[in-house]
Amino acid sequence: MRIRFADAGDYEINARETSPGVLLGGCRNLDFPEDATRWMGIIAGDARSRGRWTFGAASPRADAGAKTEAAMTTVLVLGGGGREHALCWKLAQDPEVSRIVCAPGNGGIAQLADCVACDIEDPAAVVALARREGSGFVVIGPEAPLAAGVADALAEAGIAHFGPSRAAAMLEASKTFAKEIADAVGAPTARWRRFEALAPARDYVEAEGAPIVVKADGLAAGKGVTVAETVDAAISALEAMFATPGAAVVVEACMTGPEASLFALCDGAVAVEFGWAQDHKRAFDGDAGPNTGGMGAYSPAPVLTEALREAAMARIVRPAVAEMARRGTPYRGVLYAGLMLTAEGPKLVEFNARFGDPECQALMMRLASPLLPLLRACAEGALACAAPQWREAAAATVVMAAKGYPGPYARGERIGGLEAAAGLPGVQVFHAGTAARDGAIVSNGGRVLNVCALGADLPEAVSRAYAGVGAVDWPGGFHRRDIGVRALG
Question: What pTM, to 2 d.p., does this model score?
Answer without folding.
Answer: 0.86
